[in-house]
Design brief:
The protein is an alpha+beta fold. It has a single domain, classed as Roll (CBS-domain). Helices cover 39% and strands 24% of the residues. It contains 5 helices and 6 strands, in the order αββααββαββα. The strands form 2 sheets. Strands 1-2-3 form a 3-stranded antiparallel β-sheet. The chain has a 3-stranded mixed β-sheet with strand order 4-5-6. A hairpin with a 2-residue loop joins strand 1 and strand 2 (38-44). Helix 4 crosses helix 5 (109-126). The radius of gyration is 16 Å and the shape is elongated.
């Protein structure tokens, strides 16, 4: 159910490049931040909109990214119900799936809704 191999960025990337090449170039609004394979946190469009665009060329991801927090992460073993509970409790739309401090993937609210829709359809066919 998770998106494997999501687009990531490093802490040294200027925000102007992140916005143009990564977010707009790949049509993503949420980008995990990694360094040497270790997950550090994330940056999203909400972070970018809080920074004056004139400063994007001189500001790096490292200056503004959201550091890794337990409420932003889940494990590959977590069930869909656990992931949904966590998304609802954190008021976030995405969870990073982490194993051994490494990013395994990203689960979005739309991923969870799609999974639950298929489950609902299958359950109605079994009754």
């Amino acid at each position: 159910m998770m998106s494997r191999n999501p687009v990531t960025t490093g802490p040294g990337q200027p925000l102007s490049q992140l916005a143009d090449q990564v977010m707009l170039g790949r049509c993503v609004s949420f980008v995990p931040v990694e360094e040497n394979g270790t997950l550090l946190g994330y940056i999203d469009s909400g972070v970018l909109t809080g920074i004056d665009r004139d400063n994007w060329a001189n500001t790096t991801v490292n200056d503004v990214f959201v550091t890794l927090r337990p409420e932003d992460c889940t494990t590959p073993e977590a069930s869909a119900a656990q992931a949904l509970d966590q998304v609802m409790a954190s008021n976030r739309r995405k969870l990073m799936v982490v194993q051994d401090n490494r990013l395994a993937g990203v689960i979005s609210l739309s991923d969870l809704m799609g999974y639950l829709d298929v489950l609902r359809q299958l359950d109605s066919k079994l009754v």
